[in-house]
């Protein structure tokens, strides 16, 4: 019974959030169990371009380090804000959410060629948090009961917390910069005079993730097909039938 309840709760998680967080957890467990090595997962341009190890373009986003505080901290924020985005401003627009993932991931990979970044999962988390915070500017936040602030300051608070943990700030800065690029192109530029929407979701993604509901013609039930409102049969009746019935 508990297993069924847990599975039902798991299936209630929006599809993109469910797929991404599950992939992150599975990847980390595989490393923890020595099934794979982090050296097989990190972003390495030479191995990607020369050895065609293309899986590194994906696995660099899935590994958050060994099981520990840093892993759980990043996974909590990834799951929470990814789900709130998908259930909030992207509700009913799963294909657009996938486009955000692809667009941000491509920009991060391009950035990784110029900045020494081995794993991009944390930057991806900061990007998600940044987009959510800019779309929820009036939400009041409380960070572990230590401080209160408006949502747009959340990425900067996480940046400061990352510094306290000894992490490189370049990862967070890349995530914030790419999050801002997406926010500008999607939410700011189209609202400017003469602006236009540059990020357009391909039709095949819309058909794949947001299929239109089927339109069906209404067919009345057989027993109701000849019944008019009020429950009275308003069809013209033969007076002889009434006389026969009274006789």
From TrEMBL:
Residues 227-247 are annotated as: Disordered. It is found in: Endoplasmic reticulum membrane. Keywords: Endoplasmic reticulum, Membrane, Transmembrane, Transmembrane helix. GO terms for biological process: ERAD pathway. The chain crosses the membrane at residues 54-77, 97-130, 164-185. GO terms for cellular component: endoplasmic reticulum membrane. It is a multi-pass membrane protein. The keyword Transmembrane applies. May be involved in the degradation of misfolded endoplasmic reticulum (ER) luminal proteins. Belongs to the derlin family. This is Derlin. It comes from Parnassius apollo.
